[in-house]
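We were asked to recover a plausible sequence for a given structure. The inputs and outputs are reproduced exactly as logged, with field labels preserved.

PROBLEM: sequence recovery
POSITIONS: 464
GIVEN STRUCTURE:
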C-alpha cells in the first residue's frame, strides 16, 4: 500500500501527516465514498493493471513464474466464486469476491490507477488520502462545485460510482477521526480527534466471554493508544478516555482493572514514543525457542506464564468455538442427550442429565413425584417430604441448560452445573484441583443457566 498514491498504511502516519499540513484560506475538507467497491471492480482490468505494475517493479524477474502463470493464477482465484443458498448453487458473475484475501489488494491497485486517470482535480500530493473505499480530500471546491464534480465522475462510463460529504462548521468525520480546520499562529491547520459514530454500540468484547485475559487487556491498551495517538488536545483526550472507560464498564470490565490497564496503556504509549520499550519487547520475543498453539479454556494463563518463563515456549491461544461453528448447512435436530434443571418453589433446584430428551424424562419424574412413596429414591420426593410438602418441583418449568452426547462428559457437566447451582441432587465428584477455576467462572456459568431459563420461558410463550 505504501507505493499507492495517498494510501493510509497506519493511523500514526496518517495523524502525523495531517497535523503537519498547512492549509490555504480557501481550502475545504471533503470526502468521497465509493459505492459497493468490491463488487463493482472490473476483474479483467484489475488483473491487467496488477500485471503491468508487477512488470514495471521488476518483481517478476526474481520469480520462477511468467506473466502468463501469474495471470492464470489470478483468474483461477478471482473468477471461480460459488456459493449455496436454499440448496441452489450460484456463481458471482462480476466484481471481486468479498472475503477473498486478494480482493483488497486488487481493489487498491485498480482504484490507484482510476485515481490517476480520472481524479486529476483532487489528486494533489499531501491533499488526498485513501483507505479502501473512503477518500479524504482537501479541495478548493465549495459544496456545490463538489456535488457537480461528483456528478461528472458518476457519468464516466463504468461501474465505479461516488457519493460525497462536505465539511460542516469546519469539521469532517473521516474513518474514526474528526478533522477540524483551525487558525493557529496565523496558519490554518488541522486538529484531529477520535470519533465514534452515533450508531456505534457502546460495547467491546465482553469481559465475561471465554477469551484469554491477555486479549481483553490488549483491547483496553490498544483502544487507549488509539485515543492518545489520534486526539491531540489534552482536555479532549481526558474526555475521550472517559468515554472509553464507560464503554468498557458497559462491557462488564471491572472498574479497578479498567483503570489499571488504561493507566498502563498511557504509560506504554509514552515509552514507545521515546523508543524505550520497543527494543525490550523485541528482545523478549527473540528469547522464545518454540511456539505452541492450544485451545483456550479459562485458567490457561497460568500455563502460559510457566511455559514462556521457564521453558521459553511462546503459547498462543486458539478459539475453535467461533460464531461460524454455530451455523450449519442444514437445520440442527435438537439433541436428546441433555443436562436440565427443575426449579422448586422454595428456590432450590434439581439438576439432572438424560439421553431420552426433556419431555420423556419429565414424564418419568412426574410419575415418581405423583406416586410419592415413603421408600422412594427420588431426591425430589425426599425434598418434598423433608419440607413437609410446603414446596413443589414443577416439571413444566424444567429447562435445558446444555447438550452433550458423550456420556461421561454429560455427567461431568451435570456435576459442574450442580455445584454452581448448589442443587439438591447427588452428582459425581469434581477433583478439588478444579475448584479455583470453577470459582473464577462461577458468574459466567450462572449467567448461562439464567439465559437458558429465560430463553425457555420465551419459547413457552410462543408455543401457547
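RECOVERED SEQUENCE:
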Amino acid at each position: 500500500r505504501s507505493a499507492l498514491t495517498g494510501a493510509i498504511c497506519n493511523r500514526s502516519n496518517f495523524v502525523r501527516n495531517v497535523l503537519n499540513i498547512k492549509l490555504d484560506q480557501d481550502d475545504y475538507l471533503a470526502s468521497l465514498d465509493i459505492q459497493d467497491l468490491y463488487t463493482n471492480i472490473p476483474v479483467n482490468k484489475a488483473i491487467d493493471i496488477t500485471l503491468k505494475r508487477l512488470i514495471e517493479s521488476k518483481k517478476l524477474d526474481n520469480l520462477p513464474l511468467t506473466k502468463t502463470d501469474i495471470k492464470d493464477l489470478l483468474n483461477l482465484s478471482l473468477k471461480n466464486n460459488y456459493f449455496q443458498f436454499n440448496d441452489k448453487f450460484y456463481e458471482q458473475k462480476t466484481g471481486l469476491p468479498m472475503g477473498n484475501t486478494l480482493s483488497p489488494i486488487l481493489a487498491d491497485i485498480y482504484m490507484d490507477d482510476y485515481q490517476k486517470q480520472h481524479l486529476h482535480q483532487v489528486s494533489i500530493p499531501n491533499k488526498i488520502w485513501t483507505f479502501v473505499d473512503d477518500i479524504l480530500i482537501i479541495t478548493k471546491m465549495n459544496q456545490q462545485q463538489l456535488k457537480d464534480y461528483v456528478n461528472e465522475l458518476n457519468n464516466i462510463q463504468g461501474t465505479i460510482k461516488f457519493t460525497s460529504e462536505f465539511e460542516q462548521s469546519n469539521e469532517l468525520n473521516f474513518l474514526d477521526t474528526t478533522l477540524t480546520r483551525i487558525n493557529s499562529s496565523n496558519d490554518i491547520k488541522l486538529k484531529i480527534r477520535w470519533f465514534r459514530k452515533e450508531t456505534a454500540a457502546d460495547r467491546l468484547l465482553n469481559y465475561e466471554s471465554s477469551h484469554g485475559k491477555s486479549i481483553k487487556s490488549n483491547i483496553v491498551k490498544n483502544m487507549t493508544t488509539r485515543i492518545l495517538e489520534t486526539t491531540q488536545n489534552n482536555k479532549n483526550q481526558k474526555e475521550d478516555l472517559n468515554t472509553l472507560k464507560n464503554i468498557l464498564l458497559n462491557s462488564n470490565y471491572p472498574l479497578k482493572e479498567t483503570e489499571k490497564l488504561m493507566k498502563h496503556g498511557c504509560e506504554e504509549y509514552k515509552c514507545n514514543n521515546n523508543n524505550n520499550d520497543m527494543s525490550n519487547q523485541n528482545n523478549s520475543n527473540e528469547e522464545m525457542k518454540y511456539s505452541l498453539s492450544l485451545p483456550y479454556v479459562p485458567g490457561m494463563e497460568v500455563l502460559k506464564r510457566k511455559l514462556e518463563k521457564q521453558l521459553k515456549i511462546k503459547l498462543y491461544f486458539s478459539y475453535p468455538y467461533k460464531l461460524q461453528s454455530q451455523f450449519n448447512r442444514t437445520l440442527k435436530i435438537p439433541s436428546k442427550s441433555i443436562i436440565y434443571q427443575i426449579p422448586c418453589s422454595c428456590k432450590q433446584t434439581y439438576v439432572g442429565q438424560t439421553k431420552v430428551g426433556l419431555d420423556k424424562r419429565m414424564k418419568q419424574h412426574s410419575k415418581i413425584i405423583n406416586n410419592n412413596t415413603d421408600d422412594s429414591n427420588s431426591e425430589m420426593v425426599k425434598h418434598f417430604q423433608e419440607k413437609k410438602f410446603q414446596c413443589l418441583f414443577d416439571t413444566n418449568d424444567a429447562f435445558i441448560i446444555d447438550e452433550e452426547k458423550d456420556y461421561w462428559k454429560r455427567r461431568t457437566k451435570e456435576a459442574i452445573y450442580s455445584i454452581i447451582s448448589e442443587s439438591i441432587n447427588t452428582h459425581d465428584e469434581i477433583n478439588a484441583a478444579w475448584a479455583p477455576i470453577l470459582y473464577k467462572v462461577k458468574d459466567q456459568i450462572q449467567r448461562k443457566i439464567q439465559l437458558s431459563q429465560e430463553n425457555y420461558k420465551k419459547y413457552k410463550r410462543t408455543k401457547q
